[in-house]
Amino acid sequence: MFRFDIPHFPCMQHFVKFQKWPRSNGRSIHDRLWMVSGGAQFGAARELRGPAMKVHRYLTVLVLTSFVLIWYYILRVNNGIFTGLGGLGANSSAALARRGLGLRQNAPSNASEIAIVVVACGERHNEALNMIKSAIMFNRNQSPLRFVVVAEDQLKQNFVEKLDDWQEINDNIFTYEIHSLTFPAKDKDEWKKLFKPCAAQRLFLPSLLTHIDSVLYVDSDTIFLAPVQELWSLFKTFNASQFAGMAPEHEDKNAGWYNRFARHPYYGDLGVNSGVMLMNLTRMREFRWEQHIMPIYREFRLKLVWGDQDIINILFHHHPDRLLVFPCDWNYRADHCMYMSVCEAPDGVKIVHGNRGYFHSLVQPIFNLLYTTVEEYAFRTDIHANFIRTIEDSLALPSNSNCDKLLDKFLQDPRKYFKQNLYEEDT
Fold first, then answer.
1. Left if phi > 0, otherwise alpha if psi is -120 to 50, otherwise beta: which for 15?
2. In angstroms, what CA-CA distances link 393 with 26, 271, 369, 407?
3. Strand, coil or helix: what is 160?
4. How far is residue 324 CA from its own chain's centroid?
5. What value, to the nearest 5°, has the Cα angle with vertex 391 and ends 389 and 396?
6. What's the confidence (pLDDT) of residue 53?
7. Range of 28-32, 104-108, 113-117, 192-196 with top mean pLDDT
8. Closest C-alpha among 217, 238, 302, 317 to residue 271
9. Given a cut of 90, is residue 78 above it in pLDDT?
């Protein structure tokens, strides 16, 4: 006998029992249906035949299928974090990690994993996916990656579908987890809208990601052109007091924003840009990072132009010993090349930051070209032919853009790592 309990609905207050009866006199006797309510038998047993039996079977299958789908969705969305089951035990985080599926919030990070965090709101989810794609493309040494996505609820399913596909194509070289936006209850709406939608979320990563020791935070409008493990290795150069690493906001005092316009303190001579940020979350929690952030916001809230980045600059103005400044090639922006080249990047551009919409305009064509070429790239096809050559051919003609003239700097790392075909072309 098989028994299935149907959840309570207004129109359905019973559970259903099915019992298969043997054939008799060479003729199949149909399943018999009893409805039981409150432990008492409901009605008399009645044999259902013909069309009536088919209708009952159809409705029963429909109800059970709906229940299973609803229950599956509930399991997929748990405490704001998507958790892929894939036929594995729901409590087996190690098995989930092997399958490369989303992990629960209390699953500790693997020390060998490189954790990359991105925040996505509105239309930014396409940029965030493109950033993730570029990190996978240039993961030359096949280091285990963990992508941590913090997103609006309506965007979560888009990430799950795309990342699940990419996991299968790339042999589960990465895991991922998806979190809901989390801001302090007090002034929640103000924090969410500070500067750009959800940008301030990075300020609260230490309390959101308590299960992770260190992360690389990147804005959604970034593209990797080099293996992320090169930047990740800078964590080893932190001294005992440092818990964050960022690149300067400017390289030239004549063009600097903070030294000319800021109405609040900032780090160093030119400030720092928070679009690419190494964060030792354990040390930040020990420092009581968020307790330092709140009073800064209350004091300077009417003087903040760049939102959370200004808050970060104010904090490191008062605590410069806590920050490691890394070179501009890890946060390369149009400001570095649009008028004149002010970022030397002797080893090539490592991360391109298309802030202020440069990925989506033709003002500096190479930024748009890098973004769209990554977007159009198909995994497991030749990167040299379908990325490097595509960009080279597109910029073969002379350009008036100063950034376009630095093509060799943008392609220095891709050319170094992808001289030969890595994969056979799909047929």
1. beta
2. 76, 37, 11, 11
3. helix
4. 24
5. 90
6. 64
7. 113-117
8. 317
9. no
